[in-house]
Amino acid sequence: MRAEVFRAWITAAATVIGEQRDHLTQLDAAIGDADHGINLDRGFTAVVSAIESAAPVTPGAVLTLTGTTLISKVGGASGPLYGTAFRRAGRALGDAADVDLPGLAVAFEDALAGVQQLGAAREGDKTMVDALAPATAAFSKAIAVGASAADALAALVEAAQAGAAATISMQALKGRASYLGPRSVGHEDPGAASTALILGALRDAARAAP
Ligand code: ADP
Ligand code: MG
Hints:
- By secondary structure, the chain is mostly helical.
- It has helices at 3-19, 21-31, 36-54, 59-73, 78-93, 101-119, 129-144, 149-166, 190-208.
- It has 9 helices and no strands.
- The chain starts with a helix and ends with a helix.
- The mean pLDDT is 97.
């Protein structure tokens, strides 16, 4: 996968975040402060502009610029967390012009490690980690058994979606939602939902690539 696919991913992510902005904000209204969709939409709009003007030429540079821009434009918990995830993934990809599946798996693992180092959330704490961790594991497992890129990315997204859905029954132990204690149960975590959308955009961009 070359830089064009990564640029198409981020553009598609910006589009789906824009389309789902109100939905994500409503999820955050239930257990947070009703800004998640607004935060991410602002951030990804800025990312698309940054990519258009800087025109990064490697996959790693696309993801690093995405992360840096999210950190500078998104307030709240999710900006630094997503920013770190993209920066760590970008760093893992290095200067390569073309990224293979094992390289992408390492990037996801590094992204997850970065989110967990910064936010200290574990699986089951009802955060974006509950989408990103199973997605990363499913992707690595798929490529270990020789899956195609399409199948590995499908497994990635299915695991992220299932992980996000599973947050509904969890009690939040990290982030703003944890202030609600048991009242956080019964609602999907907004960051897990947005993670599934962002990873879905990667699957779609890779599928559409020539
Ligand atoms: P804020 O909570 O500051 O308003 P957002 O609403 O943009 O920020 O993002 C909230 C999301 O951030 C949560 O749904 C959760 O997925 C994620 N989040 C919050 N704290 C953590 C953490 N410590 N580790 C991982 N993810 C977290
Ligand atoms: Mg919020």
